[in-house]
Each structure stands twice: as structure tokens, then as C-alpha cells.
């Protein structure tokens, strides 16, 4: 299984420790095409040394999105890029899990929470302590459908 993981890069890297935990668990389900999103070496300026610049990053990531079987997005830290990726994933009819931590004090965008249909697009509130269980339940439900 190919997993596309979304998390904020230029929108802020405050949750990188959570991304690392998520990506580690996702690797038990398959290949994580975007594991670099969890790298502590990435800062909010993005990838250094990207040969083709922003266009190259966009085209590479959209290609990975096309290849993916499922999309998992940590959406607590607002990010224009993550929102864009989710919109493209919906258009591609990908199975999507969005993870949101209410303890952040933020309110999740209505465009994300309102897109949830419980089947193709799932939004789950969670705490850091339960993220592995939430992922496990999601991947079990994928196998059953």
C-alpha cells in the first residue's frame, strides 16, 4: 500500500514531533511516499536545494498523490498546501483520513470538517496518546470495505 502523508511545512513546523509519530506508524501499513514531511531537518521555508523549485515540488507531490492508495493528513496546524492536497485527493477519489487535535485550542476549518462523509473522507479528533489506535482503526476499516 502506498500512503501519502500531509502535514504543514511552510505553514509552521510546531507539530513535527506528531508527524514523526504518525509516519512511524504509517510505515507499518506500507510505503509512505512523503515521509520527508516528518523530518526534523525541514523548516518552515520548505525543502532546501529542490532542483526544480516550487514547480518541481508541486509536480512531484501531485505525482505521488496520484500513485497513493490512501491519504492521511494531520490538519491541526493550518496549511494552504495541505488544504490543496486534500482537495486534489478528493477529486482523485482517494480514501482520506484527517487527524485533528482539539487540545490545540484551534477550530478546524469548516471546509475540512464539513467534507467528512465517513467513507471516502474521514475526520477524526484525537489526542497524541491515541494516534496509533486511530490509525489502526482506520486501516482495519479500509480492509473491511
Report on the architecture of this protein:
By secondary structure, the protein is of the alpha/beta class. It has helices at 16-26, 53-67, 80-91, 110-113, 131-144, and strands at 2-6, 31-32, 70-74, 95-100, 121-125. β1 (2-6), α1 (16-26) and β2 (31-32) form a beta-alpha-beta unit. The longest helix has 15 residues, at 53-67. The chain is globular and about 40 Å long. The chain starts with a strand and ends with a helix. The model has no long low-confidence stretch (mean pLDDT 95).
Radius of gyration over C-alpha positions, nearest whole angstrom: 14 Å
**Large-scale geometry:** globular
Biggest sheet character: 5 strands, parallel
For the largest beta sheet, what order do the strands appear in spatially?
A: 2-1-3-4-5
Number of DSSP E strands: 5
Helical percentage: 25-40%
Tally of separate helices: 5
- Uncertain residue ranges: none
What class do helices, strands and sheet pairing give?
alpha/beta
Strand content: 15-25%
Mean pLDDT: 95
Order of helices and strands: EHEHEHEHEH
What distance separates the N and C termini?
15 Å
Amino acid at each position: 500500500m502506498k500512503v501519502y502523508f500531509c502535514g504543514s511545512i511552510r505553514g509552521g513546523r510546531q507539530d513535527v514531533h506528531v508527524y514523526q509519530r504518525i509516519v512511524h506508524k504509517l510505515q507499518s501499513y506500507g510505503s509512505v511516499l512523503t515521509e520527508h514531511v516528518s523530518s526534523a531537518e525541514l523548516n518552515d521555508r520548505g525543502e532546501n536545494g529542490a532542483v526544480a523549485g516550487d514547480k518541481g515540488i508541486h509536480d512531484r507531490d501531485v505525482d505521488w498523490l496520484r500513485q497513493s492508495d490512501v491519504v492521511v493528513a494531520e490538519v491541526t496546524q493550518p496549511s494552504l498546501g495541505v488544504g490543496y492536497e486534500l482537495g486534489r485527493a478528493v477529486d482523485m477519489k482517494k480514501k482520506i483520513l484527517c487527524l485533528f487535535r482539539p487540545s490545540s485550542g484551534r477550530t478546524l476549518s469548516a471546509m475540512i470538517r464539513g467534507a467528512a462523509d465517513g467513507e471516502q473522507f474521514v475526520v477524526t479528533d484525537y489526542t497524541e496518546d491515541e494516534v496509533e489506535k486511530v490509525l489502526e482503526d482506520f486501516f482495519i476499516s479500509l480492509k473491511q470495505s
